[in-house]
Specification:
The protein has 130 residues and is mainly alpha-helical. The protein has one domain: Cytochrome Bc1 Complex, Chain D, domain 2, CATH 1.10.760.10. It is 46% helix and 0% strand. Helix 3 crosses helix 5. The longest helix is centred in the first third of the chain and has 31 residues. It starts with a helix and ends in a 9-residue tail after the last helix. The structure holds heme C (HEC). The site of heme C has 25 residues, from helix 2. InterPro entries: Cyt_c-like_dom, Cyt_c-like_dom_sf, Cyt_c_1A/1B. GO terms for molecular function: electron transfer activity; heme binding; metal ion binding. Keywords: Electron transport, Heme, Iron, Metal-binding, Signal, Transport. This is Cytochrome c family protein.
Length: 130
């Protein structure tokens, strides 16, 4: 009995540790996203501005936000956004998608990219937090 509740307590501790580590990433990612806000919005009220809305990014194809006027370079890149391809892109957007009009030098720090990824992954295609 004691052993069983100990296991349960440990499991619970592991879960809350994982959650708080993730919450930290998300909080750091939110700060990092300030670098994107001049051109991008996320959330339920997000609108296309200089750049497209970034809701539901992971898992969708590049250039598919309705009503946004993408370059052919972005539309035809053949990219489906996942962690790896997003990391490559955000390090140097013009290297990954030559001809893109996204004028952004890039984020080089791996940790910051991970945090930004955690932040963006919260938002489903409808802009609601998952
Ligand atoms: C100066 C404005 C600007 C900034 C700053 C900027 N972007 Fe962009 N972004 C754009 C534009 C414009 C496009 C559309 C590119 C095209 O059509 O070639 C774009 C496209 C994208 C795309 C492709 C979206 C899709 O639907 O295929 C992603 C992902 C993206 N940006 C992420 C980011 C992130 C993350 C940041 C911050 C770290 C950021 N951008 C900062 C202007 C910007």
């Amino acid at each position: 009995m004691i052993a069983r509740s100990l296991v349960a307590a440990l499991a619970l501790a592991a879960v809350s540790f994982a959650t708080s580590a993730n919450a930290q990433d998300v909080a750091a990612g939110e700060k990092s996203f300030n670098k994107c806000r001049a051109c991008h919005q996320v959330g339920e009220t997000a609108k296309n501005t200089v750049g497209p809305v970034l809701n539901g990014l992971f898992g969708r194809k590049s250039g598919t936000i309705e009503g946004y006027n993408y370059t052919d370079a972005n539309k035809n890149s053949g990219i489906t956004w996942d962690d790896a391809v997003f990391a490559e892109y955000i390090k140097d957007p013009k290297a990954k998608i030559p001809g893109t009009k996204m004028a952004f030098a890039g984020i080089k720090k791996e940790d910051e990219i991970k945090d930004l990824t955690a932040f963006l992954k919260q938002y489903g295609a409808d802009g609601k937090k998952k």
